[in-house]
Write a structure and sequence with these properties.
single chain; 792 residues; alpha+beta; Immunoglobulin-like; 6 domains; 6-stranded mixed sheet; 12 helices; 25% helix; elongated
């Protein structure tokens, strides 16, 4: 019959699991939303009261979208409890077709009743639109009967029955296992104190294993101090384990009466109410337990305390009157002490004196002292952060020096520093200091090596200090630090040196032109006369007027159309404000509050900025506010985040970037062209046309100029094209510097070449007009004829 019931209970367990779990295994239809199901739960565990077990639950997303903020909510009731976690377990995001497994440690109450229990839990998740979904599930736990182990001890006897001070005696104890299973590793621990001493055995006696109803007897040979008198007790502890390695302890004691003339009547026991350490600035209580052991009444008992720095008695006198104690009577007196908050960390002693009289008026005086270890709490602060050199540029090496001070009153043990957010910046992000004494300062150096491919901007670093006190309590403190990375500086000669060199070059060029070989004069006159006649003939013709008009249009095109490219290419972080609101600092997430405080932003403004290219949105927290529709530019970005900002829902609109930065309104010209690109339906076409003009405009301009003035190609055209393009680059570099845009070394130097290319073009033009350049002019004329770029 019992066997049938056993099998029937197992069938019930399996059916309950199938009812709760199997439907989740057969969910194969795909939902047009995120849908999280329980795809696996570990089989029903069989546990006993007091056990700890783990339940593994696997969740799968069978929907068509990612599930966000997935969490499990357990409804735990007696006799179960979750270990090291709350009833809500946050899992996070589960992508489509992905799975996540969660292990839940559960403890069983020691008084749990045998039976099958059901634990319910709820799976909750959100979709992309913030819609919340949930699903209920259960799993079963079977609690089995706990076998009992019980060891009973018995004091068989004592020889002799009456003990005299200075003698020894035998105490015999018997131990019997009266439980229902074997007791293993049985051990007897004796708390032997004055006036007793064990003569033949240790205070820890190993008895081995005891089977059911097995008995074991031991005898203790105990020596009594010759000055002792009164009734004393010896406490003991019996410890053992059962077959499931569960530990058990049982305490007891036995008393011994010692006869003799008392040397003292009172025995004091001093103990603390506070079990943990005593720290600077704390208060603690010491208790005096006085017991009359002398066989006579103790009268007019008084305790006198010698209290000195760093201790004081905030609520009592240093002289405590106890009164009278009859034989075997005890009394406990409590004394509260205060510790000065500036006390040095050390071990102190407090002396005391106990005075009393017996029935015959004889006076007794007992002196003693008790020790107090005063500990302090360490406190580490970062005094200074030095970046050398500062600011840092791409490819540069340097040092980050942290000066850490212990302003607490005790040693900071196992001190370490870890820096988060220094990827591709710091060669090492961890440093171990070991111990840092109170009031000491330590300098820690972190090597810096900036990666050449690192993005320019501001990087936020989280510097975390970790240290322990003498009780191995761990403390953590975090400090934020911003590190800026700029482009490598370009060597540019000082203005006055550059101006001097430029004037000297122009003067030298003018001198050469002015003092050209006189033998060229006839050729110059002939060339000038021939060109003058052809020019007059050209402009007298109506075609020349049209050419002049076309040239004017080309000049305007070359001047105006590169402007959108020059402006917009230096406004990567510009956009239009589409949302603006001032919020309370406390309404922002904690990590964002900390960074805002670091940057001095105490009245934050939240703006949503729409960019032109790429077409995305940036959520900005700044100290300034602008109306919607204002064209703004963001600067001083934090590039590298040590926190995840994607779930911050400050505004009800998706955004691609998050920034805490400075914001400035664009100027009128920049605003005009940015709006033109923004409101134009196909703004990319205007921008592409501007790019083509920027790179091709100088060639078109010089080509038209040389065909109109000389009706052919000339050798000066090449330096003139390069010089005009260099001049455009110089203008672009100036605007880039204004907007803190990085300029590469090559483009920075190329922007200054127009100062030499333009005089070179003038020199080449004058050279062709000389006798020495006649052959060069003929060659250029021949080349122009072949290319169809020559006018007769």
């Amino acid at each position: 019959m019992k066997t049938n019931v056993k099998y029937l209970s197992k069938i019930v367990i399996v059916l309950s699991l199938l009812i709760g779990i199997i439907p989740n295994f057969f969910v194969v239809a795909e939902f047009d939303r995120p849908h999280v199901v329980v795809t696996e739960i570990s089989l029903t565990p069989e546990v006993t009261a007091g056990d700890i077990f783990e339940e593994i639950i696997e969740l799968s997303n069978v929907g068509s979208e990612s599930a966000y903020r997935v969490q499990l909510e357990f409804y735990i009731e007696n006799p179960f409890a979750l270990l090291n976690t709350s009833s809500t377990i946050f899992i996070g995001k589960i992508s489509r077709s992905d799975s996540e497994s969660v292990s839940i440690p559960i403890s069983v109450d020691k008084k749990a009743v045998v039976g099958i229990y059901s634990i319910a839990f709820l799976v909750r998740w959100e979709g992309n639109e913030g819609i919340i979904y949930s699903q209920s599930n259960t799993f079963n736990v079977k609690v089995l009967e706990t076998p009992q182990v019980d060891i009973q001890e018995k004091i068989i006897g004592q020889d002799p029955l009456r003990v005299t001070a200075g003698d020894s005696f035998l105490k015999t104890l018997s131990f019997t296992n009266e439980g229902v299973e074997e007791a293993r590793m049985v051990r007897l621990s004796l708390d032997v104190r004055y006036p007793f001493t064990l003569t033949t055995t240790s205070s820890n006696i190993f008895l081995g294993d005891l089977n059911i109803n097995e008995n074991r007897t031991i005898s203790l040979d105990i020596l009594v101090d010759r000055n002792a008198v009164g009734v004393y007790s010896i406490s003991y502890t019996i410890s053992f384990i059962d077959s499931s390695d569960r530990s058990y302890e049982k305490e007891g004691e036995f008393g011994v009466e010692i006869l003799g003339k008392p040397i003292k009547l009172l025995q004091e026991v001093i103990f603390s109410e506070k079990t943990s350490g005593v720290f600077t600035g704390d208060t603690f209580i010491k208790k005096f337990n006085l017991t009359n052991i002398g066989g006579y009444e103790a009268k007019r008992i008084q305790i006198s305390l010698d209290v000195n720095y760093p201790f004081s008695l905030p609520s009592s006198s240093s002289n405590l009157y106890i009164g009278d104690l009859t034989f075997s009577e005890s009394k406990i007196t409590s004394v509260r002490f205060s510790v000065d908050r500036n006390a040095p960390v050390a071990v102190y002693s407090i002396p005391y004196t106990i005075t009393y009289e017996n029935d015959y008026g004889e006076s007794y005086e007992e002196t003693g002292e008790f020790g107090v270890e005063v500990s302090g709490n360490p406190q580490l602060l970062i005094d200074e952060i030095i970046i050398d050199p500062s600011p840092l540029s791409l490819g540069q090496n340097g040092l980050m020096i942290l000066k850490v001070s212990n302003v607490g009153s005790d040693v900071a043990r196992d001190t370490s520093i870890r820096i988060f957010g220094g990827t591709n910046i710091l060669t090492s992000s961890f440093a171990y200091i070991a111990n840092l004494n109170s009031k000491d300062t330590e300098s820690i150096t972190f090597p810096i090596s900036i990666d050449n491919n690192l993005k320019l901007g501001t990087y936020l670093m989280n510097i975390t200090l970790s240290y322990d006190n003498y009780l191995n309590t761990t403390y953590h403190s975090a400090n934020l630090h911003e590190l800026k990375v700029i482009s490598a500086p370009v060597f540019v000669p000082p203005f006055y040196i550059g101006a001097t060199i430029g004037l000297a070059s122009i003067s030298l060029l003018g001198y050469l032109i002015y003092n050209w070989n006189p033998s060229d004069s006839s050729y110059k006159a002939e060339l000038k006369e021939g060109e003058s006649q052809k020019t007059r003939r050209l402009w007298n013709d109506k075609r020349g007027r049209y050419i002049l008009l076309i040239m004017g249009v080309i000049v305007m095109y070359v001047i105006i159309f590169p402007i959108p490219y020059i402006i917009h290419t230096n406004l990567d972080n510009a956009g239009i404000v589409v949302y603006s609101n001032t919020v309370e600092l406390e309404s922002l997430p904690n990590n964002i509050q900390e960074i805002c405080s670091l940057r001095g932003i105490y009245e934050p403004n939240v703006l949503l900025v729409r960019h032109i290219e790429p077409k995305w949105f940036t959520l900005v927290v700044s100290s300034v506010s602008y109306d919607t529709g204002t064209m703004v530019e963001m600067s001083d970005f934090i590039i590298d985040w040590y926190i995840d900002w994607h779930d911050f829902n400050i505004v009800d609109q998706p955004f691609q970037k998050f920034a805490i930065s400075d914001i400035n309104q664009l100027g009128y010209i920049e605003t005009f062209f940015e709006r033109a690109l923004l409101v134009q339906e196909d703004s990319i076409s205007l921008f592409d046309l501007s790019i083509v003009t920027f790179y091709g405009g100088p060639i078109l301009f010089i080509l038209c100029l040389t065909l109109i003035t000389q009706r052919r190609l000339a050798i000066w055209n090449l330096p003139a094209c390069l010089g005009l393009f260099s001049f455009q680059t110089w203008i672009t570099n100036i605007i880039a510097s204004k907007h803190h845009i990085a300029i590469t070394t090559e483009w920075a130097y190329f922007g200054y070449l127009f100062a030499g290319l333009i005089p070179l073009a003038i020199y080449a033009w004058h050279f062709e007009r000389s006798a020495g350049g006649r052959s060069t002019a003929l060659k250029m004329k021949t080349l122009s004829r072949k290319l169809g770029l020559f006018w007769d």
